[in-house]
Design goal:
four-stranded antiparallel beta sheet; transport; alpha/beta; 8 helices; AAA+_ATPase; 34% helix; nucleotide-binding; Rossmann fold; ATP-binding; binds adenosine-5'-triphosphate; P-loop_NTPase; globular
């Protein structure tokens, strides 16, 4: 298992925001995490990435607790929010920084960014602008590309479609599919867009008040089932 979660609890004072008995992510799976505002999606991702320590329970990656070992960092890419970026760099400088961490040459970086050119829409590279001066949507594109640059075995993205214009959302959907198909990347993404997430992900997990209430393989009926579930 690339990720295994057991009896994972996160509580702030006396409010429990995540409470998951068990969640297994196998290598090569594409999983969409859905749930209303405050359901605990981001908190779960932060615990998977050792950014937040659980109140109870453990997260293991390839059987090793993420809190006690760095091995997972070499095969895990992630972009949760713009806080992950280095604002005073240009996108080129940031990609070089991330590429250096993974021993990629300038040529490797250029080659690996090639599939992102449609998504970048001519607005990311050679702009002579720092990341801080880009729009939220374009910052997100930089973050997603940087997270995927090392071709990680596991890619974790929090709301990758948010703040993107409709054309960019469609381009991102195709890109994520092709990262999975061409590199066997395991994807774990959260989204409020039920249609996009069911198109990209073969498995959908619904989180409600910190708990997993449904975990299903995506079929042609899943979108309808999700829409019914979220209709109040
Ligand atoms: N540092 C913190 N201190 C106190 N409460 C927190 C903290 N971080 C998160 N929470 C609470 O945990 C709950 C889950 O938040 P989280 O951001 O994980 O939800 P989410 O599913 O990602 O929501 P959204 O869809 O709105 O992004 C919320 O009620 C939030 O207020």
């Amino acid at each position: 298992m690339i990720i295994e979660v057991k009896d994972l609890v996160k509580a702030y004072s006396d409010t429990t925001v995540v409470n998951i008995q068990s969640l297994h992510v196998a290598a090569g799976e594409t999983i969409g995490l859905v749930g209303n505002n405050g359901a605990g999606k981001t908190t779960l991702f932060r615990m998977l990435l050792d950014l937040v320590r659980p109140t109870d329970g453990v997260v293991t990656s390839k059987s090793i607790p993420v809190a006690h070992n760095d091995a997972w960092k070499y095969y895990t890419g992630s972009h949760l929010d713009e806080g992950f970026l280095i604002d005073y760099l240009t996108p080129e400088e940031y990609f070089k920084f991330i590429g250096d961490l993974h021993g990629l040459s300038t040529g490797d970086i250029q080659e690996r960014l090639q599939p992102f050119m449609d998504l970048f829409n001519g607005e990311i590279l050679q702009q002579r602008k720092y990341i801080r001066d880009f729009s939220k949507g374009n910052q997100k594109k930089v973050g997603i590309a940087a997270a995927a640059l090392s071709h990680p075995e596991l890619l974790i993205l929090d709301e990758p479609f948010a703040n993107l214009d409709p054309s960019s959302q469609i381009r991102l959907k195709n890109l994520l599919r092709s990262l999975h198909e061409q590199h066997g990347m395991t994807l774990l993404i959260s989204s409020h867009d039920l249609s996009h997430v069911t198109e990209v992900c073969e498995r959908i997990v619904i989180l409600e008040k910190g708990q997993i209430v449904q975990d299903m393989q995506t079929t042609q009926d899943t979108l309808q089932a999700l829409e019914a579930y979220f209709t109040v």
